Description:
Layout: H1 4-12, H2 14-20, H3 24-28, H4 30-40, E1 47-51, H5 57-66, E2 71-76, H6 79-92, E3 97-101, E4 115-119, H7 128-138, E5 144-150, H8 157-170, H9 189-198, E6 202-215, H10 218-225, H11 229-237, H12 242-255, E7 261-262, E8 268-280
Parallel strand pairs: 1-2, 1-4, 2-3, 4-5
Antiparallel strand pairs: 5-8, 6-8, 7-8
Helix pairs in contact: 2-6, 4-5, 8-11, 8-12, 10-12
Amino acid sequence: MANETQKTYWNQVGGPKWVSLGGAMEARLAPVSAAVIAAAALRPGENVLDIGCGAGLTSLEAAQAVGPAGRVIGIDISAPMIETARGHARARHIENVSFRLGDAQTEHFAPAPEVLLSRFGVMFFDDPVAAFANLRAGAAPGARLACAAWAPLARNEHWRRPLELVEALLGPGAPRQPHASGPLAFDDADYVTAILTQAGWQAPRVEAMEIALHGVSLEEEAAIACFMGPSGALLDEKQASPAQRETIRAAIRAALPAYTSPAANGGVRVPAVIHMITARAA
């Protein structure tokens, strides 16, 4: 079965972690959702597919952009995330959106989407060429693709520095296979362009984009770094004790002021770099 490792992770580990943060990750990544929506250039009445929709923020923003005559389907392999997304839609009374538990690498969609978008959802395919070929085959003629993925670790201090602190205490993790499915799978622009070309997409483009994540506080940023991302994954891999986790959290909290700044509307501003990936179907 496709993506079995990621299905297990996002149903048993990643999804429950994300949901337990109570909306912190959605708020943190809201600027990325806005960038994806802008890159997709959504128009009223369009049918949209949100790939790896997670807790649904990008899907809900897209539903508002296409208006009541449009339709958005969000798909994700994580049951906890899909249930959370449905709850968000009910709470906001947004009716032109639906959420499906499933795998975009193999499923088909009706009506054929005119726009396919994703905020950090496409990096988890175990066979990205097959996945993007399946998505292209099911898309409407001329459909537009707009996806956000993480740029290299070296350009994302908010991930790199916490990971270094964990490695200093617990040692490095197991060697990572190049382009292995996961948050950094699409950190090489040439690799992504080649995938899309092989999958039959036209005019693929990968643009590095600087963006500011929204952090509520330095304390919450430190907690997220111990829970999610490369540093959180390494803490899990090393089976860090509560005392080790607290040591790391304090170290990350102390390091944060070096690469964050106060946000104009409160909280903290966390600089990041993403890859904005665009293409179109024939």
